[in-house]
Every structure is written in C-alpha cells, then in structure tokens.
Amino acid sequence: RKPATTKANHASQSENSYSTKLDKKAFKASVISHLHSTLGTDENKADNHAWFKATSAAIQELVLNRLRTTQKTHYMNDTRAVHYFSAEFLMGRLLSNNMHNFGLFETADAALKELGVDISDVLEEEPDMALGNGGLGRLAACFIDSLATMELPAIGYGIHYENGLFRQEIKKGAQIERPDSWRDYGNPWEICRPESTQEVPLYGYVETKYGSNGNIQKEWHPGSIVKGVPWDIPVVGYGGNTVNVLRLWQSQSSSHFNWDVFNAGGYVDAQRENIQAETISKVLYPNDETEAGKELRLIQQYFFSACSLKDIIRRYKRAHGDDWTRFSEQVVIQLNDTHPAIAIPELMRILVDRAELDWDTAWAISSKTFAYTNHTLLPEALERWPVRMLEKILPRHLEIIYEINHRFMQELEKKWPGDNVMKAKLSIIEESDEKMVRMGNLSVIGSFKVNGVAQIHSKLVKENLFPEFDQLYPNKLTNVTNGVTPRRWLKACNPLLSALITKKIGDQWPVNLTQLDKLSVFADDKTFQNQFMKVKQKNKEALAKEIKAITGIAVDTKAIFDVQIKRLHEYKRQHLNLLHIMALYKRLLKDPSYDMHSRVFIFGAKAAPGYTLAKTIIYAINKVADKINNDKRINNKIKVIFLPNYRVSLAEKMIPAADVSQQISTAGKEASGTGNMKLALNGAVTIGTLDGANIEIAEEVGAENIFIFGKTVDEVAAINKAGYKPYDYYYNNSEIKALLDWLDTDYFTPEQPGALSSLKRSMLEGGDPYLVLADFESYSKANEALDKAYKDKDRWAKMAILNTAKMGKFTSDRSVQEYVDRIWKLDTCKV
Ligand code: RUG
User: Fold this and answer.
1) Which residue windows does the record flag with biased composition (Polar residues) (predicted)?
2) What secondary structure letter does DSSP report for 507?
C-alpha cells in the first residue's frame, strides 16, 4: 500500500501533457453531444449560456476522470495530505482556467469558432464564484491551484455559501448592495456528495458522568443538530494530471432532533432562539465589521470546521481504524486565519469524549495537527468571541477551551513564576467587562507552527502581536510570503503577454516562474521593448472598451492607466489617492499648462455594508470623478473611473492593462497584499509604501523600478508615540488645507452640500488614524517622479519589463513549497 512518492518539486509538465486526449474534432463532438443530451437543446437554438454549459460539461468529463484517478492514487498510496481550512475561497470563474490547465484552451477556441461561437462570449456567461471577501479568500484559491499543479495531496474545506460577496451597484455615486445568487442557473463544476453528509450538534448542555473505569466523562447533549452536505469542486492542476478537491459544506435541517432533551423542559426558550439550519450557509459575511455579537458567524465557523474534521476522521479511520497514533502523521490542517480555530477544541472533544483518549495523548495529537496563518495585525480584525455566546452554542467546547487554558497557565507559571501580567496577556480568556475568548491565542497555543504572510508582517507578528509567545515557543512563529498563481494571473488573463514571453523564453515559466528573469536581458532591447509595450497598449485598448461599455466614458489609451483595486478600507488609503487626484485637478485649473502626462485613474473596490466612512470614500471618488470627467477646462488630462462590482473576473481584465499599481497602505497595516504581485507580474510599475510584500517586491525589482514613498513602519510608530497632529499638516501645507476645505464645500456635491465633510473630519478631528496627511507630500513627489519616468518611453518600457521579469519569487508555487518544506512536510504523489 505504500509505493514510492517523491519529494515535492516543481512539476515540469508542459501545457500539452493532457491535451493529447482531445483534439478539435473530438472536442466539438463532445460539446455538441452535451448540448443535445445534457442540455436538451441544439446548435441552432443554443444561446451563449447553453454553449457555456455544454463547453463546461465537455471539460468536466475530463476533469472527473482525472479526479477519480487522483483520488484512487492518493488512497492507494495512503498519502499524508494537507487540509486547508478556510471560511473563504474566492475562486472566480473556472472554465477558462480549467481549459488552460488541461492545455485545451486553443483547441476549444478553434472548435467553438467552427461552431460559429466566440469563446469570449462563452466565458462571459460564467458567474464568478465569489465565496470570499478579498485577499485571504483569493490566496486560498491560489494555494489550491498550486497544490494541484505541484501534485501534492490536498483538500480545501470551506462553506458552500448560497450567496457570495454582495454584488455592488453604484447609484448616483453611492454603493448599493445586492445579493449575489451565483448558483441561480446551476454550477457546472460542483458535485453534490449526499453520501458524505455529516451531522453537526449545536446548543444544549453538558452532562458529567463517571465512565466504566471510574473516570469522569463528559457528554454533550445538543439542543439541535444540523446536517452538512458536501459539494465538491474539482481543482485542476496545470498539466491536468492531479485534480484535487475543494469540499464546501451546505447546511440543511436534520430530521434527527433530540426531542427528549427538548421536551425535558427548560430548552424551549433556548430552542426558540435557534437559527434555522438552512440559514447557516446562506450568506458570506462581508468582513471589516466588528465580529462581536455575530452568533451566526460563529455557528458558520463551527459548522464547517466540524463537518470537515468528521470527514477527515472518516477517511483516516477507513485506513487506520481506531489507531490514533498515526493521525498527525497523515493529517495536517492549515487554519486560514482564526476563522476555523474552533476546530482545535473540536478535535480535542472528539479525541477525549468520543475516542476516550486521555488529555495528554489527545493534546499531543491535536497540537501536532494544526498550523495557523495570521493575516492581520489590525486589532478590530482579531477575532474574539464572548464566553457567554460560546457557552450557549458550544458548551462543551467552552469547557475544553478552559481546560486548554488552565494547563497553559500552569506552563506559564513554570516559565515565569508569579507573573500574572504575563498570564493575563497570554490567556485565551480575556477578563474584560464581557469575558471573551481570544481565538488568536487559542490558535497559537493549539498549533505547531504559526506564520505571517510577508517578511515585515511576520516580523511584526513576532515583535508586536505575539512577542511573549515567541519567547515561550522560540521556533513556532515563522514567515511564508504570499504568492499568486501565474496560471490565472498571467497565462490565462493576459494571453498576448504570455505568448510574447513564451516566444522569448520558452513555455516552462508557468510552472517555474523564476524563468521570467531571463527576460531581464531584453529590458534594454528596443525591439522587445516595442513588443512588450505594444501588448500593453492592446490590453489598454481592450480595457478602454470595457470601461466605455460599463460606464459610458471614453478614455484615452495613450494616457497612463493608473489602477487601485482592493477592498475599500481607510488603511488602504484610497482617499490618499483621491486627495492627490484633486490636487492635480486643482493644479490644472490654476495653470492649464501644468506639465503632466494625461492619466486615467481607475478604481475597483467594495466597502463592507456597515462601514460608513468607506462608503463615503466610494461616494467621494464618484463625485470627484463626475466633476473632473466633465470639466472641459482640463482638456481630458485626468479621467477618474470607478468600475462597479470589483471581482476576480474584472481584475483579470484590469490587471493586464495597468501601467501603474497603487499600493499605498499605511506602513505596518497591510499584511502582505497580493494584488501588488499580480499587477507587477503583468508589467505595471508600483507606487507604494514600504508595507507588506511591497518591500519584497522592491527588493526584487530594485529601487529604480518602483516608486517608494511615505513613512516607514518605524517612523509611523515614532509619530504615533510622539502624538500625531494632523492639524500641523493642515495649517503648514496650503495645498493640503485647500484640498480638505474643498471637500467641505458643495463643489463636488452641489445637490448635497456637506456630503463629503465627514471625510475631511476623519483626517482632522478624527485624528487621521492612517496618516494620510503625513504621507501626502511624499506621495505627491513620488507621483511627479512617476510622471517624469513615463514621459521617457524607453525608461518606462524597461521598468515595465523588469517588473514582469523579477516577479519569479511571487508565484504561489514558491509559497506552497515553503509550507511543504517547513510546515506540512508533504511528498508529491504522481498521478
Ligand atoms: O489584508 C490581508 C492582505 O494583506 C493579505 O495579502 C491577504 C492574504 O494573506 O489577507 C488579507 N486579509 C486579512 N484578509 N482578511 C484578513 C483578516 O481576517
């Protein structure tokens, strides 16, 4: 049962390794057959959606074949596997990606063409799987792509949300949220597996009993039980050999209900409060809101963690029966942030209460199973749950958390005798007015490795967030810098650039991204510069068409395309970008000959529905845009475009067309960023702060190929320590004063005077917590340098080429390899 597996290495499969299975003729036949037999229509009646379904079905046939083979191979090899627990997987669309990974894109394109169908119309029919908020969910999607590509045994576990992240509409400049019911017309990729349904207990009470051996036994009598039904989404690795699975749980009511308990009295009230089982997986929570009080969210977290653990244990038992000794050898669980941290006490409950292992044995297994990734230092995003809430929903888990904490306190007492301050700091329980459970502390204590997501971030995790934990467990905290999959974020989304690169350096770069460095020698080559910039120009023209179609606004494709795409948050400082745009506008109004290359500022951003100031910033961008875009006096020097409903599929159109990448967070606030990597990979030049992965990008591309500005992490800390005074900047810099005062007039919102005043207030009375004013001048200077660089065509082409060439480090294959080597300890398994 244990044939040879090999150490993980980058698969060197070429794109064609699987494509030989289907030529154009066979592909055509398969699509038509699905049109007839799966969809009950024909070539004459079929609309684009039917073609999309039929094409997907043709691909899915191949996918399922490889899925079966993969699963059989993993089972036969009894492989150790990573289980990636994530409340979010931001997958986007799958058809194009799956075709590319099977090496069938060109075949499909040609086949559909012969059928009179344009492949891009077909691809547009696919709704995005927007089961995530942003970076964290998209990272999970990139990682499972890499895991499959590198032929590593892995499974993603998450929630099958009925509604993904809300759809954003912009009405009169303001964000409106609409539901995202992405499965209204079915999803051609997912497979329901009712046979693997799990039951999840909730609420109720804990009974203390004596077991047969005289030991105390705990029995949880749940107040209700919900069912988790799994949906499997195949994850196709590049080359099409390994197809792993993303297993997403949908909640359903269970006929199985403990009526004895219910009728015993006293539970009627509790039961009345119970949420309907079906609502658990109904909707993805938009992040950035305070978590406290969100009972349903805690239930979501427990729901998917419990289903996934049961699923893992079922599979483990099939191979190893009741022998738990090998569990942590076979199973590693990566917690993507603290959202699935409740899995730690859940595994302890299973081992202690159900498998009747003693605590120490159980803890030895559990603490060798989990590893935890931290994605943020922002205090408001560090999860804490009220003890009261846990007691009500998961009474046994609360007991277990207390026991974990009690033993941990004993450990602390040994290390730092009598140090109660230390104990209070590191305790899982926060003794505030309302007692809280700190999920971050639980995750660190219950995991064998903890990682941050960029060098600077991991350093701050060690030095600021968990310094005492780092002292206590010297080798537990580490760094794995994020990465992105070059298959989706270059090969598939930027076919022109991909073709140019392949022509120049061969076709191995999608699986060995450091090969891009071979382009460096052509950075000064005029012919290559022309070819590279011609591709950029074509991509800009395509985006301009899209902008026109979406907004009705015509943009000049000779202008600099300047892109800021990410969630709307004060720390990401879209308002710094906006203030600078207003400054340029003002300078042009004052002096029409003000020397600047024309520039199109393009935004994409969703604000959490409850985040008022973020929504005001969106409104402000749109209102300033209205004014600038219609002001004849500035001669089209500036355009401001806000593209509504930013999502993965829109990013795929924006990124290839970007000249400039805005990465302007307050230093120390953006854990890593991954959009920064995608944009640079596609030849955009970054203007950014020394924050997150920008620092490592700067190291790779060199200082002369990036525009760095602003206060550093240390400077930010020093300013805050000394007491930051935004009014100093307001009174000492006349431009800043004029800009903020402008926001206070009705110039941009004549129909609604004062609508933007809160934005000004946030940067003055509000204390400007993200140091917008402190960084404004330096940002403005960096923009001038950028403008100058762009005017020098050769220089810019060289910079753009070198940005692409130097992005080898930022493939998610490298990140995954680091997890494999240092945390997961997996072997590849050739399928
Ligand atoms: O904000 C971070 C990004 O900096 C990072 O690149 C991404 C992936 O690691 O995760 C984002 N993030 C952090 N998303 N949610 C959180 C907090 O839960």
Assistant:
1) 6-19
2) S
Tens of pLDDT, residues 327-375: 999 999 999 999 999 999 999 999 999 999 999 999 999 999 999 999 9
Indicate if 435 and 522 belong to the same structural domain.
no
| Interval between CA 696 and ligand 1 midpoint (Å) | 17
Are 644 and 697 within one domain?
A: yes
Whole-number Å distance between alpha carbons of 435 and 456: 32
Mean pLDDT value of segment 768-787: 98
Residues 6+ apart with CB under 8 A from 47: none
**Strand-strand pairing, 6-7 and 129-131:** unpaired
Residue whose CB lies within 8 A of the most ligand 1 atoms, among 84, 90, 131, 136, for a mutation test:
136
Distance CA 319, CA 321 (A): 6
Same domain, 689 and 790: yes
Q: Does residue 2 carry a pLDDT above 50? A: no
Helix ranges, 447-571 (H): 455-460, 467-472, 486, 495-505, 526-551
What is the CA(133)–ligand 1 centre distance, in A?
9
Nearest atom (ligand 1) to Cα of 383:
18
Indicate whether 13 pLDDT > 80: no
Q: In what order do the strands lie in the sheet with 638-642?
A: 638-642, 599-604, 560-565, 660-663, 685-688, 707-708
Percentage, residues of the chain above pLDDT 90: 91
What are the tens digits of pLDDT across the range 23-35?
999 999 999 999 9
- From 65, 68, 131, select the one nearest 94 (Cα to Cα): 131
Give 673 Cα–ligand 1 centroid separation in angstroms. 7
Range of the domain at 198: 78-93+128-481+816-828
* Same domain? 823 vs 804: no
ipTM: 0.99
8 Å CB contact between 309 and 343: yes
In ligand 1, which atom is closest to the CA atom of 139? 8
Distance CA 17, CA 38 (A): 28
Residues enclosing ligand 1, CB less than 6 A? 134-136, 139, 287, 337, 375-376, 381, 453, 482, 670-674, 692
Name the burial class of residue 657, with classes exposed (0-12), middle (13-18) and buried (19+) by CB atoms within 10 angstroms of its CB. Answer: buried
Domain CATH code at residue 786: 3.40.50.2000
Cα–Cα distance for residue pair 306/304, rounded to 1 Å: 5
Q: Which token pair is 786? A: 């950028």
Among the ranges given (135-149, 291-305, 526-540, 567-581), the one the predictor scored with the smallest mean pLDDT = 291-305
Residue the block writes with tokens 């804490």:
384
Q: Do 250 and 391 belong together in one domain?
A: yes
Q: Are 503 and 792 contacting, i.e. CB atoms less than 8 angstroms apart?
A: no
**Nearest Cα to Cα of residue 532 among 343, 799, 307, 744:** 799
Tell me, yes or no, whether 122 and 139 share the same domain. Answer: no
Residues in the chain: 831
Residue 137 in this model has a pLDDT that exceeds 60: yes
pLDDT of residue 290 exceeding 90, the answer is no
Query: Which stretch of DSSP H or E encloses residue 95?
Result: helix 95-101
Average pLDDT, the chain: 94
Residue 163 confidence (pLDDT): 96
pLDDT at 262 over 80: no
Co-location of 110 and 153 in the same domain: no
Residues 119 and 133 in one domain: no
CB-CB contact of 528 with 801 (8 Å)? yes
DSSP assignment of 769-816 equals TT-HHHHHHHHHHHHHHHHHHHHSHHHHHHHHHHHHHTTGGGBHHHHH
Q: In this predicted structure, what is the pLDDT of residue 255?
A: 65
Q: Using a cut of 0.90, tell me whether the model's pTM lies above it.
A: yes
Share of the chain above pLDDT 70, in %: 94
pLDDT in tens, 146-198: 999 999 999 999 999 999 999 999 999 999 999 999 999 999 999 999 999 99
- Structurally, the chain folds into a number of domains equal to 3
